[in-house]
Amino acid sequence: MAYSSRNQKVVPAAKDALNKFKYEVASEVGVNLKDGYNGDISAKDAGKIGGQMVRKMIQQAEDNMTK
User: Fold this and answer.
1) Helices in 1-67 by DSSP H: which ranges?
2) Domains of the chain: which residue ranges?
3) What percentage of the chain has pLDDT greater than the value 90?
4) Which of 15, 45, 52, 56 could be a cystine partner for 31, CB 3.0 to 4.6 Å?
């Protein structure tokens, strides 16, 4: 059985924008990310970043629906 990654981007060209967004959100929630590998951050901090990113993306989608 072949392994297939579920982390593929729907729009590969958005990779740089998502990465920039991740660093912006990390600074907002008080998590210091460094360039490159950040596997040493805690799961709690990673969850803060991911959760806040999702909240912001949902808010933006809702705002776009109401316009």
Assistant:
1) 15-29, 43-66
2) 41-67
3) 69
4) 45
Q: What are phi and psi of 13, to 5 degrees?
A: -70, -15
Predicted local distance difference test score (pLDDT) of residue 15: 87
pLDDT band at 42 (very low <50, low <70, confident <90, very high): very high
- Three-class SS of residue 27? helix
Structure tokens at 64: 């776009």
Return the structure tokens found at 43. Answer: 């799961």
Question: d(Cα 6, Cα 41) in Å, to the nearest integer?
Answer: 22
Q: Judge contact between 32 and 45, C-beta under 8 A.
A: no
Q: 50 in helix, strand or coil? A: helix
